[in-house]
Amino acid sequence: MTVPPGRRERKKAATRQKIADTALRLFLEHGYEAVGIRDVAAEADVAVTTVFSHFAAKEALVFEQDADFEQRLTQAVTGRAPDEPLIPALRHEIQALVRHCTGDGAAPIWRMIDESPALREYEGAMRLRHAESLATAIAADLGLPPATTACRTIAMFVIDAFSLAREAADPEAAVDEIFSMIEAAWEVTRAEASGARGSSGR
Amino acid sequence: MTVPPGRRERKKAATRQKIADTALRLFLEHGYEAVGIRDVAAEADVAVTTVFSHFAAKEALVFEQDADFEQRLTQAVTGRAPDEPLIPALRHEIQALVRHCTGDGAAPIWRMIDESPALREYEGAMRLRHAESLATAIAADLGLPPATTACRTIAMFVIDAFSLAREAADPEAAVDEIFSMIEAAWEVTRAEASGARGSSGR
DNA sequence: ACCGTAGCACTAACCGTTAGTTCTTCGAAA
DNA sequence: TTTCGAAGAACTAACGGTTAGTGCTACGGT
Fold first, then answer.
1. Alpha-carbon distance A141 to A77, whole Å?
2. Å from B88 (CA) to C17 (C1')?
3. How large a percentage of chain A has pLDDT more than 90?
4. Which of A76, B4, B122, B185 has fewest C-beta within 10 Å?
5. CA of A51 to C1' of C10 (A)
6. pLDDT at A156 over 80
7. The pLDDT value given to residue A14
8. Are residues A91 and A134 in the same domain?
9. Cβ atoms of B148 and B139 closer than 8 Å
C-alpha cells in the first residue's frame, strides 16, 4: 500500500509537489498578491492549466495541507482510545496542530495568510468545511443524527479554538483556556440529553 | 439629522439602492453565478465602475445589510440596559436576527447563499470581521484589553450561534440551545477571573 | 507490440476588478 | 445670481484568476 504505486502516479504527485513548493517559495519571496498564477506556472515549468488541474484555486496553493488538517481532526474523534473522552481528545489534537502552526517553519506562512484578505477569506470558507466534517464525525461517534445542533456547535467551537489560539500571544495557554470553555459548553448538552432521554454523553 | 441631507446624497443613495435591488432580482431570477456584473450594470442602467464604487465586490451586492448586522450586534452590547447581563442581551439580539433571516422574505436569499460557494466563502470572511468587532465591543464593555482571548472566544461563539441556528430545523430552539452552551462557557471565564484576580464578570 | 487513457500543453476566451481620464451636476461662497 | 470646487458617474482599457476546447505524449494493462 505504501510501495511504488506506479510511475504515473508518482510523476503526478511529483508535479503537484513541485508546483506547491515553487508557489510557496515565490509567495514568500515576493508576496502573495505580487505573484501571479502565470509566474508560478512558468517557474515550475508547467502550463497554467496544469496548475489548476492540481489545485482548485490560487489560494489552495497556500493551504496545500488542507486535507491533512481535516483528516487529523476527524481521526482524533474516530480513532481515539475506547475509554478516552471526546473533548480532551480534541484538545490534544488541536494543541498539536497549533504547536505545529506556530513553529518557526510555519510562522512566515501564517503571517502571509494573515496579511492577505484573499487568503483570510479562503480560510474562512475552509473553517466551515472543517466544522462540517468534524460535526459529522462527532455525531457518528455518538450515534446521533448527523445534523444535531449540539454536535455542529461543538465542532464549530473546536475549529474556532484553533484559529483563536493560533493568533494568541501564548497559543498553548489559549488552547487550554478555550477548551475549558468548550468543556463547560459540552457538559450542558450532556445534562440536557440525560434530562430529556435518560441517556448521557460519554 | 433625519431631514433631507441634500439632493446629492439622496441621488447617491438612490443609485446604490437601485443597483442592489436590480442585482438581487436578477440573482434570484437566473441564479447568482449566471448573472454577471455587466448584466447588473446594464439592467440598472449604470456603468460597471459605478457598481464597484458602491459595492466592494460582487458578493457584497447580496450581503448589502452587512454593516447593519455588525452594528446591531455591537449595539446589543454597548447599548443595553445598565443592569442587563451580557450574554442574555446577545441571545435576544441573535434571536431577533435569526427570526428576521428565516422569515418568508429573506428565505430565498439565504437559500441562494447556501448554494453558491463564492457566497459561502464571502460569508465566512464576514463572520471573522463580525467576530472581531464584537470582541472589541465586549472587551471595551468589560474594561478588558481588546485582544483578551476569552472575549474573542465568546464573540466567535456568538457569531457561530447565528450561522448554526439559521440552518437548524427549528431556528429559535437552536438559539436557546446554543446560548445555554455559551452561557456555560462564559461562566468558566468568570470563575477563572475571580479565582485569579478576585473580580468577576457582570 | 498495441491500444486506451491520463496527464499535460496550448489557445482563447470569460469574468471580476481596477486605473486613468473626462463629463456632468450639485453645493456653497462671492 | 454667478461662479468655482468637488463629488458622482461614465468610458476605455487593461490585468489577473479561471475555464473550455483541443490535441499530443507517454504510461499501464492486455
1. 7
2. 42
3. 80
4. B4
5. 14
6. yes
7. 85
8. yes
9. yes
